[in-house]
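tmp note - Ig-like domain-containing protein
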Amino acid sequence: MNNPCMLFNPFFEICCLEMKHEGLYTYKRGNDSKNGCMLTMEICKDIIISSKPCVYWAHEGEWIKLQLVQTSVVVEHWIKKNTENKKEIIIPNPQKKSSLVLQNINNKDAGSYIAANTSETWKSGCLTLKIVNSLVTVGKKDDSYVTMIKNSIKLKFIGCKLANIKLLKWKKSLLTEGTEIRELESTSNYELILSKMTKNDEGRYWCEVTNIDDTSTNSGILTLHVVHDIVNVGLSPASCSATIGDSIQIRYFNEIIPQQIIFTAKRSGFNQIAPERKVTKITDTASLFIEEISKEDEGCYLFASADGDAISGVLTLSVIEGNERYNNL
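out:
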């Protein structure tokens, strides 16, 4: 909790828990700061494990609880098999619980999980846990997101109450106007997994929602950019290299973005400044996209205000052949 709040009723309940409810709760009697109790509440998602295999995609930093559908089963320990080397790891379970909590998930948690129990009448199925780099929400308003090639992301619809939805379809079109609209298959109606992305995953994504009263509506459009590299430019000089044919995002990285119009200037041939490119704003960040990089894109870039004053350090961009990068590794 960033901001403390007073709860005057000593007995309270929070319905429909969300991540915004996570935090530290303190209950004190009167003005006595010494007498009181504290409760740390963390929100995690229950993943129900039955006797059949299942798959769950978690995003980095997420908390989840693996919960056996048979809660009375005594679990001796949990077995995890790593995705990469197939090595088995024993996870102790001294309290013999039928659940396992995974905190602040990262790539090391990827793998297959199974509960080792002594019951002969019921055996746990295997949960395959896969990891995405980030969770991106799709709501009522248009939005944009930039990610890198080979990343995986989870798109989640949050545009209305899920209980009011009768049918939800994910749709996609290319970034160019007037392109064909495709309907996408999803393992979950409200979530769409984009795994190990390529430039082909770039485009506009939205949801077509049919409510229980048979009224239809569309969510906001998420414009997804997929690039080979994201380069942050602050107040200090910086440098980077890109391979011919790559696409990159040069992003103005500063806590305060000036309100006046911002544009990028390029020093052609590392010499005089000549405005050559426009800047687009992506999630309140001034950004420059360079697609299909060539030798002509080599040079020095900086962000400037409408008055021509530099507001960032200079970024020196070098463009190399693909085999040059390989030889330098």
